[in-house]
Give the backbone structure.
Amino acid sequence: MKPFVLLATRAEDLPADEEYGLFLRYAGLEPDQLIRVRLESEPMPRLDLDALSGIFVGGGPFNASDPLEKKSPVQQRVEAEFAQLLDEVVARDFPFLGACYGIGTLGSHQGAVIDRRHPEPISVVPVTVTDAGAADPLLADMPATFDAFVGHKEAISQLPASATLLASSPACPVQMFRVGANVYATQFHPELDVEGITTRIHAYADHGYFASDELELTLAAVRRVAVSHPSRILRAFVDRYAR
């Protein structure tokens, strides 16, 4: 099997390593089948799409909608690299699945409106599949509404005509979309379980996702219901595109 690639942007080793482990576990891949590139520490290598099965993008602290002057040199480099990669990915309709920050990269590339009108605190939210989503192979085995982990300051408020809306939540109109037949992005985290999001809550406690006195409330919010369905999307992606 040709490997998949995980493009990651987390600078903190513990959540970065755990993110990679979660993608491995829930996608059903072995370490030699999922190449990790930590973009926060090294430039994106030239990816030969003909040698790959597909591309995953993990989450991270970058916000695509921040003004250019507030973006670090690292973020500006990463965004330029993603723009170049997505030119080829979209043109070839190559298998791509971006989670959280991945929705910002693909959304920006496609001209979506990304702003801070639809943030969601770190929590569990009900995600509802659209009619187009119900017909999509990655969501075929999902319930019409399923619970998922979220936590984001920005979101897409308007999709371009090139995109197909696949899922929404009460506070966030774009939870998942597709471009072409094989290029996907989710606002929610399909890779997370409760242990993984607990690690991130502690790791990013001072990043403005919640007030300093809301740590325990945030930890309780992600434990209020069991989350089990979103990870099926990762396995469906691998099953569909492994070659």
